[in-house]
Amino acid sequence: MDNELLNMELLSGPLYKNALKQLDLACTAMKLDPNVAARLKYPKRALIVSVPVRMDDKSIKVFEGYRVQHSLTLGPGKGGVRYHPSVTLSETAALAMLMTLKCSLFGLPLGGAKGGVRCNPNQMSRQEKQNLTRRYTSEISNIIGPDKDIPAPDIGTDEQTMAWMMDTYSQEIGFAVPGVVTGKPLSIGGSLGRTDSTGQGVAYTIMSAAKHLNMTLDKDTTVIVQGYGKVGYSAARKMDKIGCKIIAVSDENGGIYNPKGLDIEAIHKHLTAKKNLAGFPEAQPVTNTELLELKCDILIPAAVESQITEKNAGKLKCKILAEGANSPTTLEADPILFDKGIFVIPDILANAGGVTVSYFEWVQGLQKFFWDEKEVHNRLWNIMETTFEKVLAVHKEYKVNMRTAALISSLQHLSKAMLVRGFFP
Ligand code: NAD
What we know:
The protein is of the alpha/beta class. It has helices spanning 3-10, 14-30, 34-40, 89-105, 126-140, 159-173, 197-212, 230-242, 264-274, 288-293, 333-339, 347-350, 353-367, 373-398, 402-421, and strands spanning 45-54, 60-71, 77-84, 111-118, 149-153, 222-226, 245-251, 254-257, 284-286, 298-301, 320-322, 343-345. It contains 15 helices and twelve strands. The longest helix has 26 residues, at 373-398. The protein is globular. Bound molecules: nicotinamide-adenine-dinucleotide.
């Protein structure tokens, strides 16, 4: 694929365009070497695979899958695997770019990658998902590995998916290779604290933001969470534990709202039993659009991308917007939020708890020495707080919004590494 074709393919998706524009803003503000900036606009490597799967009715269905490695300058690729009907090469490449920037921002010795299969996991049986995962892993096995690229869970995948990936890769190599994935079950080398790490990290950055804004987090602090999956549920749980009041949550089918507060664990039980938030007692239904516009102190979008746009940004009524999801806010929405005085904790800062504990899992696995949960949490808190302060300092120095500040901070580290490694051939 020459550059023109690659460009056409990549730029066909809104997420990639958004990521490029954000990158441009940061490169301009920090006057980044244009040769470095040019390289970062493209992924290093992008693999498209066909994934034939034997379905329960014995038919074979062919799915399209991807693994994109955006940059391997700082270390092996790192990034989740997404199972969702809207997965495309362009979206996967954009998310891989975000992973490069996230890992660099946090000083992790990892590059940026992302994978995905266009499918609807909610309509597949456990056996079909296993077949899909094993074949997808086999198709991308040449470019993944503990020293090459290490997948993790994302939308539609979980620790069971990682266990199947680890097993398939290990079967092909001939011995157990737990380090090929992170976010795996504890019994095969997972880390304590990994399941909740992304949501926990979101909450830690909110605590840092509240300190910066002189805002108290207590029972009168209202929180809304869009997307009640792995990230949303754990973020809500942590905010609840801190003592804040969760007043609305949602999933893809809609949301529930109670200004007096919701019982997080009761919702979880309800969702596990009914697979739907609808019908939860003592709460009124709201749509996802309405949910984002409800008055609250802290809004956590933790679902999918492009939820806050120039159309609804002006209607948001929160003080802090903590991006649990990747790219929930479009570039056009940013200045509107800024003018409204909403403090945005950008995705590569807010939701990096997951990749950070993935890094801890990788380190523990390499050392064959596992930490207790307290140590994982303490180390996570330290790194989240230090990185938040680093971004805040850039925000003040360059007089840019927190998103551009996070990107500048990340690019300062990454560009140094790129320039010192030099150019080949
Ligand atoms: P998940 O599949 O566990 O949960 C996603 C949730 O969002 C589900 O509740 C789903 O019903 C809901 N949802 C889907 N479409 C929606 C829509 N249009 N409106 C409202 N809700 C919708 O996924 P997850 O792992 O929690 O990931 C959520 C987001 O966080 C994604 O953007 C992902 O890239 C990002 N993220 C995840 C991790 C991680 O460790 N899992 C790390 C960093 C970032």
